[in-house]
Amino acid sequence: MESRVAGAGGQDWWMLPLELPATAPSYRSVVLRPFEPRDVGMLLDLSTDPYVPKIGTLPAHTDEAGALAYLDRQADRLVNGAGYSFCVADKETGEALGTAGLNLGPIAAGRASAGYSVAPRARGRRVAAQALTALTGFAWTVPGLHRVELYIEPWNLASARTAEIAGYQREGLLRRHQEIGGARVDMVLYATLRPGR
Ligand SMILES: CC(C)(COP(=O)(O)OP(=O)(O)OC[C@H]1O[C@@H](n2cnc3c(N)ncnc32)[C@H](O)[C@@H]1OP(=O)(O)O)[C@@H](O)C(=O)NCCC(=O)NCCS
Predict the structure, then answer these.
(1) Burial category of 57 from C-beta neighbours within 10 Å (exposed 0-12, middle 13-18, buried 19 and up)
(2) Helix, strand, or coil here: 173?
(3) How far is the CA of 133 from the centre of ligand 1 (A)?
(4) What is the pLDDT of residues 52-75, one digit of tens each?
(5) Is residue 107 a part of any domain in this protein?
(6) Which residue's C-alpha comes closest to atom 38 of ligand 1?
(7) Ligand 1 centroid distance, CA of 115 (Å)
(8) Residue 197 pLDDT grade (very low, low, confident, very high; cuts 50, 70, 90)
(9) Which domain covers residue 86, as residue numbers?
(10) Is residue 175 part of a domain?
């Protein structure tokens, strides 16, 4: 089913079911590929992170059934046009390392937001920055997209550094911007712009 989204300047976007790119986006040692059932082990590890369950739909300390249900939800996002959800994997081996997503909720206004996570056992080698670079390159293939935004809590220095390594600029502090884990929290807004405009 397709739905119509009214855009700025009188344009309309037809939000058809999205399709993953024919060529998986990649940068340096990572590739962004569709999730597969073999990624459950990575998701079990990721679900042990205290922050990840607060900012997404992966339950804390989940089991195999919970991880498979999460995979179904990621596939649904593509079908209903909500956005792209990729597994971040090692380019050589295909081993799952984390997640990277592009949320197209604000696409009618020419914006999207990105999110990422790396399984605890795969951290410490700039995987998220590589994934974000690949994701951002892919984002510019989306028609009508001018800005990709990141919303990062001020304490999250690993994420802020990831944003900077991937070429995002800090734009400001959004006070009590949203609720996370039952509390209103500040967010630092980072963004990058479509090149050449
Ligand atoms: C944020 C996250 C994706 C980064 O994972 P990663 O790619 O393995 O990150 P790394 O450990 O390689 O660190 C990336 C950079 O941040 C720096 N960094 C990491 N922890 C830091 C800290 N506590 N203080 C300051 N800098 C830190 C690293 O030194 C590195 O920079 P450098 O290579 O220039 O030295 C990961 O921590 C995660 O999944 N966190 C939970 C989910 C999350 O917060 N997602 C983002 C939501 S906005």
Answers:
(1) exposed
(2) strand
(3) 14
(4) 999 999 999 999 999 999 999 999
(5) yes
(6) 117
(7) 13
(8) low
(9) 3-148
(10) no
